[in-house]
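From the shared-data thread, chain only:
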Amino acid sequence: MRHYLVDFLLVTTLVFTFNVKSALSAEPDMREIQCIDVEEEDDLASFAFWLDGYISGINERPIAEPDEIEYVIEQTLKACNEFPNKAVFDIVKRLKQ
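Structure, as tokens:
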């Protein structure tokens, strides 16, 4: 009986460990987050702001233009209302070109 209990605990521990590791190792791909994935408009605006900075960095444009950032956020919110299944990254990237 004791042998079965030890085996059960060992197997349960291994299964739990592998499931937790796979969940923790999963990193979200920011390029795939769709408008409908972000529930609050303030969160969407913050995400668009972050993406604006990220894409500016990729494009080696380190100077932030407040009017441009405001435009990108406003247009991202508008586009997400019209196309909720569109990736936020794609919207911001298009606006940054």
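Helices lie at 2-25, 41-58, 66-82, 88-95.
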